[in-house]
Amino acid sequence: MDYKNWYLVRLFRQNKILFIFVLLFIFFQLYFNQKRIHSFPWFVWDMYSREESMPDTVTQTEVFIDGKRLDVTHIPIWQEATILHTYKMYNWQKMNGDNDPINDEVKKRTRYFPERVYHFVAYKINNHPEESQQYPAWLKNYLEKRLHQKINHVELKDVQYKYEGGKFRQVNAWTVLKIDN
Amino acid sequence: MKFFDFHINNRNTYARWVFGFFLLLLIYRWHSSTFLIYAYGAPMKGPEMDYAYWITLCTGLPHFIIQHYWACLFIDVAVVACSIGCFISEKHRHVFCTLLILFFFIQRVTIETFSCSHSKSISCVFVALLPFCFKSDKNFMLVLEAGRYFLIYVMVASAIHKLTNGALTHPYNFSTVLINQHVDLATLNPNHICYRIASKLIQHPAWAAASYIMLFISQIIFIVGFFTKQSDRLLFIFLFAFAVTTYYIMRIYNFDILMLGFTLLYFPARHGTSVKRSAF
After folding, report:
1. For A131-138, which contacts have Cβ atoms below 8 Å and span 24 or more sequence positions?
2. Left (φ > 0), alpha (ψ -120 to 50) or beta: where does A175 sit?
3. Are the Cβ atoms of B44 and A127 closer than 8 angstroms?
4. Which end of chain B has fewer CB atoms < 10 Å from its terminal CB, N or C?
5. Quick one: B265 exposed, middle or buried, by C-beta within 10 A (0-12, 13-18, 19+)?
6. pLDDT tens readout for residues B88-123
7. Does residue B127 contact residue B145 with C-beta atoms inside 8 Å?
8. Which residue of B has its CA nearest to A133?
């Protein structure tokens, strides 16, 4: 095994600028891996690598359109993710008194900078109350356009299931968001 | 086995494969509404802890784009036009590709932030595009090789995490993972092909454990790629199987990673013959 054939050695000999970029890329990959932070393009590739336990109950968000449950498995995965993840963000903020919980992280990351830097970053990164007020109307519009139908009433419910005998049995349900015309 | 002889030995042909596949991914994204015009006006942001997304958001550009329909349309059209340019033009491919990376990055950051949905495998698409930004064959090959090593790292790191985080020592646990993963299918659409496959594994935890171990093997085998390039075509088959099976068992979209997989099929010809790249 001739070390002259090693990729990094060849790279160093042929293009020193690229060599520095590749070393920086490796450094940041190791750094973010160590810190367990997902930051594009340096992700921690640890999907489904942990032992999971079966919780007593599983809570799932369900969307009801004009009283009929939307079958999210019949729409593309990205549409499903957009509906459910934006709703989770909205709900997260509402549960935190209309303050975005990510603000704690903004504070932490800007703690070594002057106060005005925190205010600037928080303004750009945080969700603000006026944005969460716009969310229900946007969601209804998004659903109408993606499902190609006029919608009068949207209801989002959190439903609790218990897994018993190979099947999920509903044990509880509560409405979290109602959008009317 | 003719497939094991299959390789791409010409830079232009390789570009056609990569950008042809990228255009297919764009068609799928169009079908699944992963274009900015579909998310226009979205108010909620979800950049997670991603520094790259935070920095881009601090410029104010994603906020501006999502609030203006014409800006959403412009970025979407620019992504499609640049990818068609990359597919067609050999002479100006490096220019089109540089622009494509720029517009695609803006599109991804904006749409993923305002859909509150982060995708890891998208980084593989960017790494697969990078070599085409270089005009000289020497730099193209060096960056392409870096991309190949990145792909191998992704697969091996994923396997090692399964070992170090403990899931591999409890492979029977995979049936629990499948139960948690498919709550929506179980309650809404139990006849879905993914759930029919998963429910067989849930009913037979030993089969689930075996499939998890097979998944681990299909990833750890990529370690061979750090030492030799002789097995690259075989690794491509493993990668293809990984992308297909993770969809059918887990209902996870992993096809972005395949775009980087084409680096495993590129054996450039020298002096009229196809040359097997040396180890390292």
Report:
1. A131/B43, A131/B44, A131/B45, A132/A90, A132/A93, A132/A94, A132/A98, A132/B43, A132/B44, A134/B41, A134/B43, A135/A86, A135/A90, A135/B43, A135/B44, A136/A177, A136/A179, A137/A179, A138/B41, A138/B42, A138/B43
2. beta
3. yes
4. N
5. middle
6. 999 999 999 999 999 999 999 999 999 999 888 899
7. no
8. B43
Is residue A40 domain-shared with residue A76, that is, in the same domain? Answer: no
Closest partner residue to B183 among A45, A102, A168, by Cβ? A168
Alpha-carbon span A75 to B266, nearest angstrom: 36
CB proximity B183 to A under 8 Å: yes
Map tokens 């002889």 to a residue.
B5
Tell me, yes or no, whether A70 and A34 share the same domain: no
The C-alpha atoms of residue B49 and residue A109 are separated, in whole angstroms, by: 10
Q: Do A18 and B143 touch (CB under 8 A)?
A: yes
Range of the structural domain that residue A164 is part of? 57-180
Look-up: residue for tokens 């990145």? B150
Query: B54 and chain A: CB distance < 8 Å anywhere?
Result: yes
The interface predicted TM-score (ipTM) is 0.92
Is A67 found in the same domain as A25? no
**Pairs across A and B, CB distance < 8 A:** 192
Tens-digit pLDDT profile for residues A153-177: 999 999 999 988 888 899 999 999 9
> Quick check: B42 contacting A, CB < 8 Å?
yes
Of A7, A29, A138, the CB nearest to B42: A138
Three-class SS state of B13: helix
CB B162 within 8 Å of CB B216: yes
In angstroms, the separation between the Cα of residue A48 and the nearest Cα of chain B is 7
Whether A75 and A151 share a structural domain:
yes
Chain A hits for B275, CB-CB cut-off 8 Å, are none
CB contact under 8 A, B44 and A72: no
The answer, as to whether pTM is greater than 0.80, is yes
Q: Which of residues 225-264 of B touch A (CB under 8 A)?
A: 250-251, 253
